[in-house]
Specification:
The radius of gyration is 22 Å and the shape is elongated. By secondary structure, the protein is an all-alpha fold. The protein is 73% helix and 0% strand.
Length: 251
């Protein structure tokens, strides 16, 4: 059985509970991304006022607003490379980093600390940006792959941003002090991050990674059986460039 035929059992599988879990597992991380990146813009005036900074367009405000985005770029580069050594190996580290840093924001003693914390938070966001779509796409069935990614990413990111704004309005309506308000809004990003941590660690490694990059077709067969319930022959690993025959020398 060829590799394509082996993976066809995953591609042609009907949409089932495993695929729902995959959407929730990846989607809640993307929800965190939208929440964490949007919340700082929502509470930015409160943060600056809390630290005695009156100028909205100054360097401090720009650094605070951009720190998580810069961290996300760094995290995407780092985990894009690390992900070639295993998708699941690092899956969960991203939301753990986001959860811990979200809570840490509530205890930032000054603006410099908050900027540094959000930079590290951004690294977790960048890690999620490369790991989640890869895992979602490699686990999804052919018929529902586009819809799954659409729900897990295009829907969950703006939903996270919406919830951040809603929570801010709720706290303002309750008369919470401005200093406590922004700390609670930023820290609340830890709730969805920690809630999905176990699901991410329980997610199986993708069969395509195991067969094509890890050269472990036996493990790929186990994952295919777990998802589809079908037993297939081990797919042939992709030949390494060094193993391919060299073209004949021409004299």
């Amino acid at each position: 059985m060829t590799m394509a035929t082996s993976f066809s059992s995953l591609d042609e599988e009907r949409f089932k509970s495993f695929h729902w879990r995959a959407i929730v597992t990846t989607g809640l991380g993307v929800f965190c991304d939208g929440y964490d990146l949007s919340s700082i813009g929502i509470v930015l005036p409160l943060v600056l006022g809390s630290f005695g900074i009156a100028k909205m367009g100054g360097l401090e405000a720009a650094m605070l607003a951009a720190s998580a985005l810069v961290g996300a770029a760094v995290g995407a580069l780092i985990f894009g490379l690390l992900g070639q050594n295993g998708r699941k190996r690092f899956y969960g580290l991203d939301v753990l980093l986001m959860g811990v840093m979200a809570v840490a924001q509530a205890f930032a003693p000054d603006l410099t600390w908050l900027i540094a914390i959000r930079f590290v938070l951004g690294i977790g966001i960048g890690a999620d940006y490369v790991l989640s779509p890869t895992i979602m796409a490699e686990h999804a069935n052919r018929a529902d792959r586009g819809r799954s990614i659409g729900v897990g990413f295009a829907v969950m990111w703006p939903l996270g941003a919406f919830v951040a704004g809603l929570l801010n309005l709720l706290l303002a309506g309750l008369g919470v002090s401005h200093d406590l308000q922004w700390r609670l809004v930023l820290a609340a990003g830890a709730i969805p991050a920690f809630s999905v941590l176990y699901l991410r660690r329980a997610m199986p490694e993708t069969a395509r990674y195991l067969a094509r990059l890890a050269a472990d077709p036996g493990a790929a067969v186990d994952v295919i059986r777990q998802i589809s319930g079908q037993t297939v022959r081990a797919p042939r690993p992709t030949a390494a460039p060094s193993a391919r025959s060299s073209p004949p020398m021409r004299g």
